[in-house]
């Protein structure tokens, strides 16, 4: 215990170790979800085969929609796992610098990656908690941490727009640095792509019968 019974401030090494463990734990949970999605997809494909043999293409398409949706969720989760790994690496790099200076340095890279994770429902809680901790440790700007704290359960488009405002306020060109830019996709085009994926899935199962 420190002076007046207060707990001593954690060292950069202790903070980095805690964050890395939290990130690894989050990755493990997401990977479990991915495995469940894979297992469920195998079941759905077997069910599609059954209804196709009965000539029930309406039910087959409904099931195909579920498989396509699950695949998209899996792709998003796999991307989130990679983002978590990138943050771990960035924290290690920042820690190496902290060992020389005695304190973490502000990191635009970490702010950008944490901003991306705000829109991931699986990481919303850990993202907010860690961003606040990183703000106290001097890695991210207070303005950024405050913005993350105020974001609740909103859709990804609203989150992206909100985070873009924060980055602009910090003088960060998020679109150019992350290699991504807001893209407005017509609903009809999205639905057309989904239909094509469903048709392709059904054709592949028909061929296997």
UniProtKB/TrEMBL annotation:
Q: Where is this region: Disordered?
A: 181-203
Q: Which UniProt keywords apply?
A: Coiled coil
**Top-rank taxon:** Eukaryota
**What residues form the membrane-spanning segments?**
none
* Pfam families xrefs: Snf7
Q: Which Gene3D superfamilies match?
A: 6.10.140.1230
Q: Which residues form a coiled coil?
A: 16-43
Q: What is this protein called?
A: Snf7 family like protein
Which organism's genome codes for this protein? Aduncisulcus paluster
Lineage of the source organism? Answer: Eukaryota, Metamonada, Carpediemonas-like organisms, Aduncisulcus
């Amino acid at each position: 215990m420190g002076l007046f019974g207060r707990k001593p401030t954690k060292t950069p090494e202790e903070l980095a170790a805690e964050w890395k463990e939290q990130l690894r734990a989050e990755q493990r949970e997401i990977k479990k979800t991915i495995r469940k999605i894979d297992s469920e997809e195998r079941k759905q494909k077997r069910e599609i085969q059954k209804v196709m043999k009965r000539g029930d293409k309406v039910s087959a398409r409904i099931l195909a929609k579920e498989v396509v949706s699950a695949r998209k969720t899996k792709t998003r989760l796999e991307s989130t796992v990679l983002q978590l790994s990138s943050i771990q690496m960035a924290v290690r790099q920042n820690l190496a610098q902290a060992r020389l200076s005695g304190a973490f340095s502000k990191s635009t890279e970490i702010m950008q990656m944490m901003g991306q994770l705000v829109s991931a429902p699986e990481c919303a809680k850990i993202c907010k908690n860690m961003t606040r901790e990183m703000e106290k440790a001097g890695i991210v700007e207070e303005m950024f941490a405050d913005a993350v704290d105020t974001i609740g359960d909103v859709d990804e488009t609203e989150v992206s727009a909100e985070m873009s405002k924060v980055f602009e306020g910090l003088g960060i060109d998020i679109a150019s640095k992350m290699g991504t830019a807001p893209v407005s996709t017509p609903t009809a085009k999205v639905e057309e792509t989904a239909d094509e994926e469903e048709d392709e899935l059904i054709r592949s199962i028909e061929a296997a019968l």
